[in-house]
Amino acid sequence: MTAEPLEIYLEEADLERGLRDDVRAGLSAERKWLPPKWFYDARGSELFEEITRLPEYYPTRAERVVLAAHAPDIAALTGAKTLIELGSGSSEKTRLLLDAFTRRGGLGTFVPLDVSVSALRGSTAQIAADYPRLRVRGIVGDFTRQLDRLPTGGRRLVVFLGGTIGNLLPAERAEFLTAMRAALEVGDWLLLGTDLVKDPSVIVPAYDDAAGVTAEFNRNVLHVINRELGADFDPAAFEHVAVWDPQHEWIEMRLRATRAMSVRVLGLTVDFAAGEELRTEVSAKFHREGVATELAMAGFAAAEFWTDPDGLFGVTLARA
Ligand code: AVJ
């Protein structure tokens, strides 16, 4: 089957309004910040794919090992008719699940949801071509906002991979998981990928690679704001910073101004002192029990937990 036309729940105009609101709020705050979702224009999505292939960036490889080992279990335990993927990106690892479901039979529909139209166009076309019996319905949307629009009917498995849930702050995670549970029914399932807490000497290089790809990815958000909002950031004047926060157990990415400067955006003048930092991403790391507890607080019951042999990355299968 060819992929169905993308269902667009997040129009160009909504996206732009969201970006404007975030830029206005984040850049006028006492401690400047921007949410990580604005990294992912076509260039940012490409840079992220490049990150997943870096020697230092272990999460993608570790999660792939888990999925390769347990995809048949996931297909058998859930018996899902519909597979919904939140923040699907290229859906590259999801193919391991689609292969297992194809062997087992019974899966009818694949629904990838992502903010990136370019990533979705590529993934839906390729998956539709490679899985000819699957109905492929791509949804352009924000996984924190479009949960009430998920397709209904038939047993569903929602997958949220890559550790992307770590981009949410604890209170946002609780709200997200609760909304997710409300969107599901008893009998549906959630498969959640979480990067695990480990020695910072392993985590930090994954977010500060020798080739500088993550630095480029980080600065890409400034290119996005320049292009979409006509701002005049000089991305080259910001250096990439990755710091492990042992108290919150998350890594933060920041952009540090290498000199004092003023940036014009949305009619605002945003002043940066030399050395001032702008927080662009939080990527939380988890413990097995913490994941189970957060899921339980939201009304899910963790049924299985798997890791790769090195214990780097965890995948939890939970019942709604
Ligand atoms: C896509 C959110 C899972 O947090 O590891 C990679 C994004 N940022 N390198 C992550 C990211 C810097 C990634 N997630």
Give me some keywords for this one.
single chain, 320 residues, alpha/beta, 9-stranded mixed sheet, 3-stranded antiparallel sheet, 24% strand, binds N,N,N-trimethyl-histidine, EgtD_Actinobacteria
Write a structural description.
- The protein has nine helices and 14 strands.
- The mean pLDDT is 95.
- The chain is 38% helix and 24% strand.
- The protein has 320 residues and is of the alpha/beta class.
- Bound molecules: N,N,N-trimethyl-histidine.
- The site of N,N,N-trimethyl-histidine (AVJ) has 12 residues, from β12.
Structural class category: alpha/beta
Using only C-alpha atoms, the radius of gyration works out to 20 Å
The portion of residues forming beta strands comes to: 15-25%
Shape: globular
Would you identify the regions where 5 or more consecutive residues have pLDDT less than 50?
none
Bound compounds, please?
A: N,N,N-trimethyl-histidine
Function: Catalyzes the SAM-dependent triple methylation of the alpha-amino group of histidine to form hercynine, a step in the biosynthesis pathway of ergothioneine.
Catalytic activity: L-histidine + 3 S-adenosyl-L-methionine = hercynine + 3 S-adenosyl-L-homocysteine + 3 H(+)
GO molecular function: L-histidine N(alpha)-methyltransferase activity; protein methyltransferase activity
Pathway: Amino-acid biosynthesis; ergothioneine biosynthesis
